[in-house]
Amino acid sequence: MFRPTFRPSIRAGLIAASLPFAAMTSPLAAATVEITATNPVIELSVYEQVEVAPDIVTLGAGVSTEAPTAVEALRRNSAEMRRVVDLIKALGIDARDIQTTGINLNARYDYDRSSQKQVFRGYQASNRVSLRLREIERAGEVLDALVSAGATDINGPSFSVEDDTAAKDEARGRAMASAQARAEAYAQMAGYSGVRILQISETIRNSAPRGEAIMVTASRMADAAAPPPPIEPGMVGTGVSVSVTYEMIGAPVVG
């Protein structure tokens, strides 16, 4: 999105190291400076995204159990979830890549239409973990193993990049080049020969395809010979949004 704005001056709040003329008051302090422009200014917002191959896939696995009492429901659930977690570790997934995301225990009620009352049916306990795979080609194998170990609900896959610094630097360079070209074009249209930068601000954006929930059925769990689900990682995007303020300079002298 490009939004040209013409005005004689601008007051800007910025990090001290952002511009050469910003005075630093402390190592991490923000400085407010008065920028006076004698010519019209242009404000542009440019977003650039770079696609890269993912190297991490995140999966979610959980177990839900029901029992007449809360204690029994939680105990059953804990035993079943322990088998799932033990399997995850046995697959070679590091403990730092395994994280519990939720434990729930709730009473269950059904509505009896004849009596028009809620009827207590017992308790349901659930436990969920997320795990990160750094060998994304193993995603299908791991999903299949989780179901075999007793996981009753699976989420994912979600792909990401562990270190996208280089990709963001490339996106940042593209955004600045695009903003500069647009600003110079606007300046020429307005009768000026160039532009100078007054202010830069940046917003980091991460984007990755979201995994869809994978439904697990009893027949799938029983079929040990079924092949693992196919997983295609594709590409993920990482981007930078840059807002730049320019002053038009070098206006031709009118005789």
What does the oligomeric state look like here? single chain
The average pLDDT score comes to 81
Low-confidence spans: 1-29, 210-222
Structural class by sheet pairing and helices: alpha+beta
- Beta-strand segment tally: 9
Order of helices and strands: EEEEHEEHEHEHE
Shape: elongated
- Based on CA atoms alone, the radius of gyration comes out at 28 Å
What does this molecule look like?
The chain is an alpha+beta fold. Helices cover 24% and strands 41% of the residues. The chain contains four helices and nine strands; from the N terminus they run ββββαββαβαβαβ. The strands form three sheets. The protein has a four-stranded antiparallel beta sheet, covered by helices on one side. The longest helix is centred in the last third of the chain and has 25 residues. The radius of gyration is 28 Å and the shape is elongated. It starts with 9 loop residues before the first strand and ends in a 6-residue tail after the last strand.
